[in-house]
């Protein structure tokens, strides 16, 4: 099955970004610096990918 577009995985909604930014840094996503914003994105994408990889090992 192929997906249209160049992105893999699913996009993060603004609500998810806000929630994770507040969880990690205690402030709004818009108030984070670039590295913190990348961390929020990585927290979301990286965690899910890693969990799926662990599931496949079993």
UniProtKB/TrEMBL annotation:
Annotated spans, Disordered = 1-58
Task: State the source organism's domain of life.
Answer: Eukaryota
UniProt biased composition (Basic residues): 1-10
Question: Basic and acidic residues composition bias: which ranges?
Answer: 11-25, 48-58
Q: What is this protein called?
A: Uncharacterized protein
What organism does this protein naturally occur in?
Gonium pectorale (Green alga)
């Amino acid at each position: 099955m192929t997906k249209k577009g160049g992105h893999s995985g699913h996009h993060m909604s603004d609500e998810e970004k806000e929630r994770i930014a507040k969880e990690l840094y205690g402030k709004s996503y818009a108030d984070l610096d670039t590295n913190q914003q990348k961390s929020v994105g990585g927290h979301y994408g990286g965690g899910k990918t890693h969990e799926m990889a662990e599931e496949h090992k079993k």
